[in-house]
Amino acid sequence: KNAAAYGQWSLKNFEIGRPLGRGKFGRVYVAREVKSKYIVALKVLFKEQIDKYRIHHQLRREMEIQSTLKHPNVLRLYGWFDDDDRIFLILEYAHGGELYGVLRERGHLTERESATYIASLANALAYCHSQDVIHRDIKPENLLLDHEGRLKIADFGWSVQSRSKRHTMCGTLDYLAPELVENKAHDYTVDNWTLGVLCYEFLYGAPPFEAAMQHDTFKRLKKGVLTFCCSNCIRQLFIDL
Ligand SMILES: Cn1ncc2ncnc(NCCc3cnc(NC(=O)Nc4cccc(C(F)(F)F)c4)s3)c21
């Protein structure tokens, strides 16, 4: 039967292309839908991993949340399907890849580029928060660029939809708000904290509280000690060192 007509996708509707990246739970491939020739990204998750880490509820939450979010700076989740041992997320394809790669390649961004990305991110977060969605894991790896260089927030695997205060410890240490680090109740403002961390990282090339040991990052994060100086001072510093 014509599976697409019933919205039931399967692997045979797609031609799989090159791998785009790999996450903890699976890999992402560029793919083309056979009939429409439409290009998408397919994220493959293994069921035994989902079972092992008991994260079914998170995946279900992501699908529910993502199916309601429609914003130019939020990567779309078009749908999903599964086979015996894998779950496939049908995602909008971001031709420009991860902003993380651009940042590592360039070292740091110009003030104009940083301001543009932060403005897009602020718009996307304001939209998500207006839908009572907290992303909770904003970091350069989850910021993608489309073919026109427009920023897209991706991976709502850690997001929640709620007005109430949350308690789950989650996110990536360098971008974590102090209340999350201290496992206190938190709300959507944890995403706003990451805006500041990312603004620093775009301009300087590394997050403000980065340290070799997690313990030191915790301490610096809580104290909020920041060293602001221009990039050539940093370069001069290393030359002096
Ligand atoms: C790298 N790259 N380059 C171009 C490009 N274009 C599109 N996408 C890319 N990458 C994929 C970005 C993602 C979007 N949504 C995701 N969602 C997710 O990964 N969800 C997820 C994972 C593991 C466990 C759970 C669970 F179960 F805990 F909920 C949920 S990943 C691209």
Separation of the first and last Cα atoms: 69 Å
**Secondary-structure element series:** EEEHHEEEHHEEEEHHHH
Write out the distinct hetero groups bound to the structure.
Answer: ligand AK3
Major sheet: arrangement of strands: 1-2-3-5-4
Dominant shape: globular
The total strand number stands at 10
Low-confidence segments, given as residue ranges, are none
Count of alpha/pi helices: 8
Report the biggest beta sheet as strand number plus sense, adding barrel if it closes: 5 strands, antiparallel
Strand residue content: 15-25%
Q: What is the helix content?
A: 25-40%
Mean pLDDT: 87
Structural class: alpha+beta
Cα gyration radius (Å) = 19 Å
Summarize the structure.
The protein is of the alpha+beta class and 241 residues long.
Describe it for me?
- It is a single chain.
- This protein has eight helices and ten strands.
- It has about 240 residues and is an alpha+beta fold.
- Helix 4 packs antiparallel against helix 6.
- The N and C termini lie far apart (about 70 Å).
- The relative contact order is 0.11.
- The ligand Cn1ncc2ncnc(NCCc3cnc(NC(=O)Nc4cccc(C(F)(F)F)c4)s3)c21 binds near residues 59 and 89.
Jot down its keywords.
alpha+beta, 3-stranded antiparallel beta sheet, 8 helices
Annotate the secondary structure layout.
Layout: E1 14-22, E2 27-33, E3 39-46, H1 47-52, H2 56-68, E4 77-82, E5 86-92, E6 97-98, H3 99-106, H4 111-130, E7 133-134, E8 143-145, E9 151-153, E10 160-161, H5 178-181, H6 189-204, H7 214-223, H8 231-240
Antiparallel strand pairs: 1-2, 2-3, 3-5, 4-5, 6-8, 7-10, 8-9
Bound molecules: the ligand Cn1ncc2ncnc(NCCc3cnc(NC(=O)Nc4cccc(C(F)(F)F)c4)s3)c21.
